[in-house]
Amino acid sequence: MRTRIIVFPGSNCDHDAMNSVKNVMQESDTEFIWHKDESIGKNVDLVILPGGFSYGDYLRTGAIARFSPVMKDVIRFANDGGTVIGICNGFSSIV
Fold it and tell me: Across the beta sheet with 83-86, what order do the strands follow?
């Protein structure tokens, strides 16, 4: 399963998500994607938007993260029926 984990400035659950997917689920095709990238890549099966304190919780993190370049592709992926897991304030990035 090809999994991509989106990393935002200050997020702190991205490495936990990577550990869970690679070591617990034993899915080796897992990569971090920096929020300023414009694409999640091809043939992706799962995108994870980790929680933590991306941009600081006092700044309405999802409202800011939603405008990161990669989010256009994440939204396209979700609209095409792709599976997206949003954790904590990672969830508010896509809604």
Answer: 30-34, 3-7, 46-49, 83-86
